[in-house]
Amino acid sequence: MATGITSPASGTLAPGINGRYHKLALNAFMFIVVAHWAEHIAQAIQIYALGWKLPDARGVLGLPFPWLVTSEWMHYGYALIMLIGLIALRKGFVGRARTWWTISLGIQVWHHFEHLLLLIQKLSGANLAGRPVPTSILQLIVPRVELHLFYNAVVFAPMLVAVILHLRPRPEERAKMQCTCATPVGAAA
Question: Which residue ranges run through the membrane (predicted)?
Fold first, then answer.
């Protein structure tokens, strides 16, 4: 099994991130993803189950730090972190897991573009379709809270499938893996 460690001369920015340190990097990335997803779920519960008005429904962290919800920089930064994480960790996936990870990456490229569009509008003061606030393309059809629940779901679902397949690879996929993420052969499922 290869270690995934490369020499500094190879030009690799993160030696081992898809080899020896893939499991650690993947776990850290998934923690960030699930925490963000939980914030969106909390906001949806505040709106739809608790009946809070939209400006009051700020998730968990947004209650003590309201600027988090209104900061286009913070939202763009998270979209960028997602994009970078999906790109950086992709080489560690093989076979069916890589296919699903790539689907998630493709959807995140669009999601990132939408956040970039929002940030540009915020910085320029010129909003899409003459709207009073920065507006993404699909937000012209779907309200922002629902749209971001949707985006996070459609990025997260194939990512989750990829991780499950990565942890439980077929024998031919396991032979190609350079990391130690997979459940050991013979371990309880």
Answer: 73-89, 149-167
